[in-house]
Amino acid sequence: MYKDISHNSYGFRFQRAYQDNVADLHAIGFEHHQNPANYSWHGLERGEKDIIIFQYTLHGNGAISIGDTTHELTKGDAFFIDVPSDHRYYLPADAEEWEFIFFTITGTEAAKLYQQITKKHGHLFQLSIHSSPVNYIFNTLKRIETAGISHGYEASSCAYSFLMEFLGYLEYNQQQSKAIPPSISKAIEFIENHYSEDITLDEIVSVSGLSKYYFTRQFVKSINETPIRYLTKIRMKKALHLLITEKKSIEDIAKEVGYTSSNYFSKVFKQTIGETPSNYRQNTDIMPVNQLFTD
């Protein structure tokens, strides 16, 4: 994946009044350090400030001390840290080498997203080399080697896109990569087979064999949303398809996707899609879709 990329680092200092308010690419690199080497960066002693660093280990060993705690960094380990802060990352004296990629960002919005990520997930991560954030850095390095980055808006787009890749991985891909317990799989199958019926949460829970409290916690942990929210999304996707492809009444469509009340169906539809079923069907300013993706 990265054998055709040269060890190098790149810095960017475009005029950036706009970028300072959003996100900006400060530096990116692919480096390899061997002992004896003086590779050490302290977060309170750097000449730079207000930067955010993502660094991912490809090979060898590194270390990072955050406060009073030191963590060894091996293949697949990453850290996400800001400057200034009380940390130091370095090549330990007993390590032979450390090969890594890094991505450094600045910007007010980037700082907010950094706080959001680290508050929920911490500063240390374990990622596959094939994960989307790592793949994004490799692709950016290849792009810079071949074409460069020509202006500040391009650098800003690059930085913000990385943050979205990282957030998306943490919030969705990482969740989906976890094995779904059989009890939750049974519940999902039940929802997808019976969404057209007036099913209740208690009925969904009974399929799992778990208590309602534990089931709901496990479902959210596995799917990243509540059982009822998942059921609603299934119903809304089916309703969209019927509104576009069928000439059935709103009442009939409501019943077909599990709602006994067309008024309640219309209320839920508007909350999810942003307008009523009848308006969606009649509005020629909206491009119809066959599949809906919602969060």
From TrEMBL:
UniProt organism field: Oceanobacillus oncorhynchi
Signal peptide: none
A GO molecular-function annotation: sequence-specific DNA binding
Gene name in the database record: rhaS_1
Nucleotide-binding is among the record's keywords: no
InterPro entries from the UniProt entry: AraC-bd (IPR003313), Homeodomain-like_sf (IPR009057), HTH-like (IPR037923), HTH_AraC (IPR018060), Tscrpt_reg_AraC-type_HTH (IPR020449)
Assigned keywords, A-Z: DNA-binding, Transcription, Transcription regulation
Domain HTH araC/xylS-type: 185-283
Top-rank taxon: Bacteria
Entry protein name: HTH-type transcriptional activator RhaS
